[in-house]
Design goal:
Elements: E1 2-4, H1 26-33, E2 41-44, H2 55-70, E3 75-78, E4 96-97, E5 103-105, E6 108-113, H3 118-126, E7 131-137, E8 161-167, E9 173-176, E10 182-185, E11 202-209, E12 212-220, E13 226-228, H4 234-248, E14 256-259, E15 273-277, E16 284-288, E17 291-297, H5 298-305, H6 312-323, H7 326-340
Parallel strand pairs: 1-2, 2-3, 3-4, 6-7, 7-8, 8-10, 13-14
Antiparallel strand pairs: 1-11, 5-6, 9-10, 11-12, 14-15, 15-16, 16-17
Helix pairs in contact: 1-2, 4-7, 5-6, 6-7
Length: 346
């Protein structure tokens, strides 16, 4: 059995960083490209970041569900607080909604509860029939590092519920419910801010034996690379690192550099500058984190960022890169890296 939660499918999931695109989709693509062998997929809410998702997010979820169906993996889900609606959107993609009516999955009696306000949740828990697994979307007190927004404690789970898979809290964690069975928070599939980068996001593989669940493996998704330029290497050095990483990165998650302000001092950017290079495209952005709307196309701002008379080689490379047909971009980057001695040959 595969447990996955809080995918929050949307084009842009990094608050305040609109140039970063596609991070929510990459984990689903990774799972779709290597589907499990006929194991059921349990989704614990917030598949989408909103009840009215954009077309890209719908397409990515369609691609994922098609791959799972082809692999023989039945899919089940509950709704989260972000994507809740009167008719679950996931049902249009062949995903079965879990409810208080038990269904049999891998020999387990499984029930589900969508997210609901706190005043209704305890009453709904009282109506849960005896089951081996309850899938829900609610914040639990022991999973939060602070007081306030939690809805439930472990003691609130009825003793006739064998195990619980709960979405909502974006961190992985396990403990025990009153019956002695497993409590699992799968966590989110990907980070969405710098503080989360070491959190280890992904999905969880579970074993089923004797009516109980046990964690078999936690599959961490290796996401986008963030490279911090810690010395004053200048814009040339920063972009060299970016080009080196872009030449080997997965296309859907190009690297992002965090560059000190003196690297782009000529452009008048404030402290905390984000530089991203998108492989196989003609877009290189230098973005002010304090003012994301101030991000710019390097093609438009090349003269201000890189003085041709001071750094002719870098200016020539970037000008060629931004004007070249897409199929030439990789070669131009690699030729420049060879010339700099970063790599030995193309």
């Amino acid at each position: 059995m595969i447990a996955i939660s809080d995918m929050h499918l949307a084009r842009h999931i990094w608050p305040g960083r609109p140039s970063i695109y596609g991070d929510a989709y990459a984990p689903l693509r990774a799972l779709a490209d290597s589907p499990p062998g006929k194991e059921p997929i349990i989704m614990a809410g917030d598949i989408f970041d909103t009840a009215t998702p954009d077309g890209d997010s719908l397409w990515e979820f369609h691609r994922f569900c098609s791959a799972m169906e082809k692999a023989g993996c039945p899919m089940y889900a509950v709704q989260g607080n972000h994507d809740r609606s009167s008719t679950p959107l996931f049902a249009s993609f062949g995903v079965r909604r879990l409810s208080l009516a038990p269904v049999s999955i891998d020999g387990l009696r499984v029930c589900g509860l969508d997210w609901m306000p706190s005043e209704r949740l305890l009453r709904a828990l009282a109506d849960v029939p005896p089951c081996d697994l309850l899938v829900m979307h609610a914040p639990f007190r022991h999973m939060l590092g602070y007081e306030g927004k939690w809805q439930l404690e472990l003691k609130d789970i009825p003793a006739h519920v064998g195990s619980v898979i709960a979405g909502d809290i974006h961190v992985f964690g396990t403990s025990s419910v009153p019956s002695g069975g497993l409590f699992l928070s799968p966590g989110a599939t990907r980070p969405r801010n710098m503080d989360d980068l070491d959190g280890g996001f992904g999905w969880v593989e579970l074993d089923v034996a004797g009516g109980r669940l046990a964690v078999r493996n936690r599959r961490k998704f290796e996401g986008r690379k963030f490279i911090v330029v810690e010395d004053a290497a200048g814009l040339t050095g920063a972009l060299q690192l970016a080009c080196e990483a872009a030449a080997t990165a997965r296309e859907e998650l190009p690297p992002v550099l965090l560059v000190p302000p003196d690297c782009v001092e000529a452009a008048g950017k404030p402290a905390g500058v984000l530089v991203s290079i998108r492989n196989k495209t003609r877009e290189i952005t230098v973005e002010r984190q304090a003012d994301p709307a101030g991000s710019c196309s390097l093609l438009d701002q090349l003269g201000a960022l890189v003085k041709q008379e001071e750094e002719p080689e870098l200016h020539s490379l970037l000008d060629s890169l931004l004007r070249a047909p897409d199929e030439l971009v990789d070669r131009l980057v690699k030729e420049w890296l060879v010339g700099k001695g970063v790599i030995e040959s193309i």
